[in-house]
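Quick one - first record:
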Amino acid sequence: MEQIIATVRSFDGALVLVPEQGEDFPELAWGDAFFYYAPDGRVPRNVQPYGTIVTKNYPDDSACDLDPPGRWRVNIHVGRAKFQELLGEEPRSFSRPRDYAAADRVMPHPVYGALGWICVVTPGERTTDTVLRLLRGAHDADRARSARRHEPGQPLESDWGDAR
């Protein structure tokens, strides 16, 4: 997990949030990581992260069985075309049965797969390079979306202030 976080932090303009206990984030987010393109170091308004790492089950997201020690999941927005390339199915109509608790496999996100999100539970030898490549692609796509949203020289709006 630390290798992935460190790699994303090295991307130009990356903002990586890893909320800890006592910070001004919801308790449920403590220990997780959220990846944004934000060259000014501020969380962009009205933008979801392009990738996350979650370290526990969420109330409506427990199919991956993340509560046992040592289990965590990387989630990446890859979009429709890359989703289909990786999984051989359309995001809005994937239907093959999957063991979402299986580690080190690229799968549709159990909740957000229809929106072009994939996930990997506890990436290992088989998937770590793929995860890093997909995060790089998601970062670059987010940077391109940001450029389309903002005129050159305009500051990015922020809800959270300087989060560096």
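second record:
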Amino acid sequence: MTTLPAAPPQPGALPQPEARRCTCWPGATVWLTGLPSAGKTTIAEELAGRLRREHRRVEVLDGDQIRKFLSADLGFSRDDRNTNVQRIGMVAEVLARNGVLVLVPVIAPFADSREAVRERHGATATPYLEVHVATPVEVCSVRDVKGLYAKQAAGEISGLTGVDDPYEAPQVPDLRIESHTQTVRESASALHALLTERGLA
């Protein structure tokens, strides 16, 4: 009997040892909403690292990067903020629907915008979780990672969410994280526990 040679690996295919380690999990979108400097991105990156070590397919959709590359044409009016959130929501839903766990650390200050994203996911039965990183504005203004609070206080900018622009906090989020009372690792662990509870990790 003639033995046919093994087919060459397809472009982009995982090496065999890596492929054997992969486990199929459902995709999902986890939207982390909260004030500027609340700790959303830091928690998302901490969790993403943990999930990758568990061989999960993870993407972090960072708000600043989206603004730079996908929503550079938008300002910060209510309509523009809504458009930005819907663009991010569409990208997240497509990724999640195809098996990626998507972490979205984006302010999304208006409840109706966030609800529209939830409905988009619901239309395709794609898991969606809303997490409120509930750091008080007094703490955020001290952290002031990007210097926004200082610029607002100096009159250099206006329309800062939670200061002179509205922020509608989630009333019933899937998880509320008070990052100012615990470490980043503890916050990420709380979110990981929620994913595990929902069968997503």
